Amino acid sequence: MRIYISVDMEGVTGLVDADDVQxxxxxxxxxxxxxxxxxxxxxxxxxxxxxxxxxxxDAHGPMRNLLPEALHPAARLIRGKPKHMxxxxxxxxxxxxxxxxxxxxxxxxxxxxxxxxxxxxxxDMWLDGRPVGEIGLAHATAVAIGVPVAVLTGDDCACAEMxxxxxxxxTVAVKSARDRFAADLRPAEEARTxxxxxxxxxxxxxxxxxxxxxxxxxxxxxxxxxxxxxxLLGIPGVTxxxxxxxxxxxxxxxxxxLFGVWMRVAASLTNQPPYC
Length: 276
Prior knowledge:
Elements (H helix, E strand, L loop, with lengths): L1 E6 L10 H4 L6 H21 L4 E6 L16 E4 L18 E7 L18 E6 L2 E2 L2 H12 L3 E7 H10 L4 E10 L2 E4 L2 H17 L12 E7 L2 H7 L6 E4 L2 E6 L3 H16 L7
Parallel strand pairs: 1-2, 1-4, 2-3, 4-7, 7-8
Antiparallel strand pairs: 5-6, 5-10, 8-9, 10-12, 11-12
Helix pairs in contact: 2-5, 6-7
EC number: 3.4.11.-
Protein name: D-aminopeptidase
GO molecular function: aminopeptidase activity; metal ion binding
């Protein structure tokens, strides 16, 4: 059984603030170790279910947060950037399931460290008219590749967002949001035991075959900056619905890769801290 793990940081056990998840932050070094412990719990669960091949993609910020020496030796690590497929780099049809560890809720929610990919720079996103964030877009892209999402871990808001998107995905809440930078934390050992047990149980269960969607999808993004939207109109196939909102049609996962280009353009035009 081949398992793919996409690991973000905002939804990791114990982390609540930008200083926990940004390089240079007062508690970033501690945060990256907490990140490793959550993903190691998921790896142990996957091994207990019979996984023979495990790939971990460091999907947060600079994408070099996980210390290779802190990662369980049974897993291979994809680290660094740029990555054409962002949080899903290395995901392939040959994988039997995907695990999302440390994920967070979309922009506009009151989840811990909530945002959609670029802090304040992205105000809203829709996939085929449905509000979406990192969770929904990762899920939809994985399904288009042919890989089911089995488990998601994060705060209670992230878990609720995943359940609303696909109720068949097992979720593990490692903290409950009190506000955007505050949470009621689950004890670390309890949270990691819950992750390990949930992954083992989910991967051991019989899962229906993934139905790969056919036909194009439409991705719409409302930016904080009209300058970003105007610049993106120079990319063939990108159209605008107003001065700050652009959209494009295409099939996933190609549309997900195109969105990565949009973010690189936006990053070149702005210098917005992600959690202002």
